């Protein structure tokens, strides 16, 4: 603001004394008359100064555009007053026309200022004003403009005949310059005090940051776009054995294991491309020459010039890796143990099935022999499930469609001597069922298919066994049927007390399912159930 005042006053005297004062001086009997004759110009300048103060104020209450328009109008008013004063001393219509034009322009800009204020029209001049604040090259000489104008004004004393008015004018400008320097020195002193205080604060915060990063378990670092370290926290000594100075200026890729370098590079490129953070595990060479496992979280950093590098947070995960290897090894051991258990259960059930088969050879009564065969098939249906689990990649479930095909082929082989007169019609969706559901579902299929093979095709009658399994959202739809002779009203299974059908009903309750029997050309059982959830036994 003081620079603006010095520039305006200097320009006034530079224009006034060489051009106007020599003309009007003879008409002024003394200095007081001269001062009064140009006082209205100073009033204009004071008014202009007030407007400028409001314009430069950070807490101005009105918009920028009205102030700019008003300042321009007042500046034209100053020029108009100077032209009119010249006309009064040296009458000339050109000076009068020029003064009238400037006065009209003043009125025009003042009216525009009022209109913009009433309609709240504004412009943002912060970008334009910021040009003066930016440390550009030409700002160096702009900052010396007030002093240059003062020297030029002072030179008027040398090139003109000095009188009281000129000496007083130059004295006013010199006083303003001295005031400017006093304020500047005071601001410099305040800036030095603030700078010293800020340096102390920065030093304290740096010491605190060094203390924190030296005692933290994580390593904080920053690299440029090529992976060269720009900052490494002191915790590198504790974590890797390197001091910060040992790593600064070196590429992080020089310390990463060759087998992990490509993975790290690709991960960083991907993170830079999507401008998001990344997390990666890799091996890093420590000061002893050994490779340790680190987990690093990185974030790309951008500025107005674009990508500038990464900021990382790394930690030692050797213990986690050992724990993970131990868990992995333990899981493999448990998986092997579970497979062995299923294998042994399958073997034991096969032994029970074989014992029942041997025992049935000694049974004379046909009905009793049939009961042994039925029990043998039930045991074998359960044994197959454990066999499938043993062979499965997952111990949680089995491919139930494959299990059904194996079970049906085994039942047809046992119940029919002529394998050609019974056909299979399978429409089974690829589904996986856990052991909780597979065992009762397999027993149900075993009972229903066994019953059809025994009763639906007497005397070698040809026929077809139909089995369908489909999934509908969370439910499974199982259909088991045949195109055999069907049942009479007295033989409807749900009305009887046969063991097989009672077993089916009990298994349906276990599955929380429902069954619908369709009679007609044969018999079709339509069962709807859901997969059971594993229930902890202990």
From TrEMBL:
<feature type="transmembrane region" description="Helical">
    <location>
        <begin position="95"/>
        <end position="118"/>
    </location>
</feature>
<feature type="transmembrane region" description="Helical">
    <location>
        <begin position="5"/>
        <end position="24"/>
    </location>
</feature>
<dbReference type="InterPro" id="IPR036890">
    <property type="entry name" value="HATPase_C_sf"/>
</dbReference>
<dbReference type="InterPro" id="IPR003594">
    <property type="entry name" value="HATPase_dom"/>
</dbReference>
<keyword id="KW-1133">Transmembrane helix</keyword>
<dbReference type="InterPro" id="IPR000700">
    <property type="entry name" value="PAS-assoc_C"/>
</dbReference>
<dbReference type="Pfam" id="PF07568">
    <property type="entry name" value="HisKA_2"/>
</dbReference>
<dbReference type="InterPro" id="IPR035965">
    <property type="entry name" value="PAS-like_dom_sf"/>
</dbReference>
<dbReference type="InterPro" id="IPR000014">
    <property type="entry name" value="PAS"/>
</dbReference>
<feature type="transmembrane region" description="Helical">
    <location>
        <begin position="36"/>
        <end position="56"/>
    </location>
</feature>
<dbReference type="InterPro" id="IPR001610">
    <property type="entry name" value="PAC"/>
</dbReference>
<keyword id="KW-0812">Transmembrane</keyword>
<dbReference type="InterPro" id="IPR013655">
    <property type="entry name" value="PAS_fold_3"/>
</dbReference>
<protein>
    <submittedName>
        <fullName>PAS domain S-box protein</fullName>
    </submittedName>
</protein>
<dbReference type="InterPro" id="IPR005467">
    <property type="entry name" value="His_kinase_dom"/>
</dbReference>
<feature type="transmembrane region" description="Helical">
    <location>
        <begin position="68"/>
        <end position="89"/>
    </location>
</feature>
<feature type="domain" description="PAS">
    <location>
        <begin position="205"/>
        <end position="271"/>
    </location>
</feature>
<dbReference type="Pfam" id="PF08447">
    <property type="entry name" value="PAS_3"/>
</dbReference>
<feature type="domain" description="PAC">
    <location>
        <begin position="278"/>
        <end position="329"/>
    </location>
</feature>
<feature type="transmembrane region" description="Helical">
    <location>
        <begin position="165"/>
        <end position="183"/>
    </location>
</feature>
<dbReference type="Pfam" id="PF02518">
    <property type="entry name" value="HATPase_c"/>
</dbReference>
<keyword id="KW-0472">Membrane</keyword>
<dbReference type="InterPro" id="IPR011495">
    <property type="entry name" value="Sig_transdc_His_kin_sub2_dim/P"/>
</dbReference>
<feature type="domain" description="Histidine kinase">
    <location>
        <begin position="340"/>
        <end position="533"/>
    </location>
</feature>
<feature type="transmembrane region" description="Helical">
    <location>
        <begin position="138"/>
        <end position="159"/>
    </location>
</feature>
């Amino acid at each position: 603001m003081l620079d603006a005042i010095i520039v305006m006053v200097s320009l006034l005297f530079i224009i006034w004394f060489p051009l106007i004062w020599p003309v009007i001086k003879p008409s002024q009997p003394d200095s007081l008359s001269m001062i009064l004759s140009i006082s209205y110009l100073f009033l204009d300048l004071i008014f202009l100064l007030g407007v400028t103060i409001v314009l430069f104020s950070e807490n101005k209450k009105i918009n920028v555009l009205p102030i700019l328009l008003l300042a321009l109008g007042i500046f034209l008013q100053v020029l108009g007053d100077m032209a009119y004063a010249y006309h009064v001393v040296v009458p000339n219509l050109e000076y009068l026309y020029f003064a009238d034009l400037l006065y009209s322009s003043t009125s025009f800009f003042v009216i525009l200022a009022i209109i913009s204020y009433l309609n709240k029209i504004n412009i943002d001049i912060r970008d334009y004003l910021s040009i003066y604040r930016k440390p550009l090259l030409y700002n160096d000489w702009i900052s010396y403009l007030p002093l240059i104008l003062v020297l030029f004004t002072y030179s008027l004393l040398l090139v003109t005949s000095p009188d009281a008015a000129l000496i007083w004018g130059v004295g006013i400008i010199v006083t303003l310059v001295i005031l400017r320097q006093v304020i500047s020195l005071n601001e410099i002193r305040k800036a030095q005090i603030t700078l010293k205080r800020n340096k102390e604060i920065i030093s304290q915060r740096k010491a605190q940051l060094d203390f924190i990063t030296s005692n933290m378990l994580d390593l904080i670092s920053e690299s440029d776009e090529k992976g060269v370290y720009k900052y490494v926290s002191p915790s590198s000594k504790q974590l890797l054995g390197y001091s910060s100075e040992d790593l600064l200026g070196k590429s992080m890729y020089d310390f990463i294991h060759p087998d992990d370098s490509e993975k790290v590079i690709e991960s960083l490129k991907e993170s830079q491309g999507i401008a998001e953070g990344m997390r990666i595990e890799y091996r890093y060479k420590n000061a002893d020459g050994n490779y340790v496992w680190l987990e690093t979280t990185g974030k790309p950093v951008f500025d107005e010039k674009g990508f500038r590098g990464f900021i990382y947070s790394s930690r030692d995960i050797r213990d986690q890796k050992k724990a993970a290897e131990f868990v992995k090894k333990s899981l493999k051991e448990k998986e092997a143990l579970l497979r062995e258990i299923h294998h042994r259960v399958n073997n034991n059930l096969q032994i029970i099935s074989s014992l029942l088969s041997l025992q049935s050879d000694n049974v004379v009564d046909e009905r009793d022999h049939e009961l042994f065969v039925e029990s043998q098939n039930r045991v074998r249906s359960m044994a197959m499930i454990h066999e499938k689990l043993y062979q499965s990649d997952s111990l949680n479930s089995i491919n139930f469609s494959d299990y059904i095909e194996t079970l049906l082929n085994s039942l047809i082989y046992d119940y029919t001597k002529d394998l050609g007169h019974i056909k299979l019609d399978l429409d089974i969706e690829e589904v996986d069922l856990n052991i909780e559901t597979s065992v009762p579902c397999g027993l149900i299929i075993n009972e229903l298919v066994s019953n059809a093979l025994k009763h639906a095709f007497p005397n070698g009658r040809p026929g077809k066994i139909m089995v369908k399994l489909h999934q509908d959202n969370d439910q499974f739809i199982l259909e088991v049927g045949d195109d055999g002779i069907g049942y009479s009203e007295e033989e409807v299974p749900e009305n009887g007390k046969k063991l097989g059908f009672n077993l089916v009903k009990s298994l349906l309750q276990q599955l929380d399912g429902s069954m619908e029997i369709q009679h007609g050309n044969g018999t079709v059982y339509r069962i709807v159930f859901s997969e059971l959830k594993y229930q902890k036994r202990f």
